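User: Can you model how fe (ii) ion sits in this protein?
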Amino acid sequence: MAADTTTSAAPDGGFVGALVAAGAASYVPRMLNLAAPTRASWTERAIENLDVVLLDHAHCEKKAAGMAVRLLFRYPQHVFLQDPLSRLAREELGHFEEVLRLMQKRGIAFGRQKPSPYAGKLRQRLRAQDPEQLIDTLLCCALIEARSCERLGLLAERVPDAELARFYAGLLAAEARHHRLFADLAGQLADAASVRARLLELAEWEAEVVAADSSIVRMHSG
Ligand SMILES: [Fe+2]
Ligand SMILES: [Fe+2]
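Assistant: Here's the modeled complex, given as structure tokens:
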């Protein structure tokens, strides 16, 4: 089924990167279908705790790959998912390796870290039966990618360390593309208007969840 209107507001990754480079990051949330922008306090705390955020970022990239692979195993009947999610999983593992290399270069140890409750809370709104559950899962993945893209853009713009700023800016286009991919895949499972409406509903929930918990600093904390 048509996916065009589902993703009409989803950006081209290069365009997002260009906006960020032009210092227009405040426009990005709307273009990524996010219901609310990240608060300035998150960016300040993230910049004060970059080692912690880098470690979480590494875990997030690995989890993104794991999620894609889980969907491949769970839904072999959906042929349209197979090739794009296989490619996405490899790309996310590539990002994981990039973060690991950067951490190694900076003497930051990789290891276990308490995750933010973000993804678990997002899943609380998944509908119980397929295809609705798969649609919601794909849309939540789209929103996670969108929030990651927005926050990488904020870090690219504000981090004083030039190497790190370049690193974050280099990931923006991929995460914006992943946002669009997941929204397009959800659009294969129902009519465009209902998928779009569900995306907007879940975006409201995502904005609530991401702002809720600021007890720890993570890529998706408050
Ligand atoms: Fe990634
Ligand atoms: Fe991604």
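A couple of observations from the model: The chain has a mean pLDDT of 90. The two ends are 36 Å apart (CA to CA).
User: Helpful, thanks.
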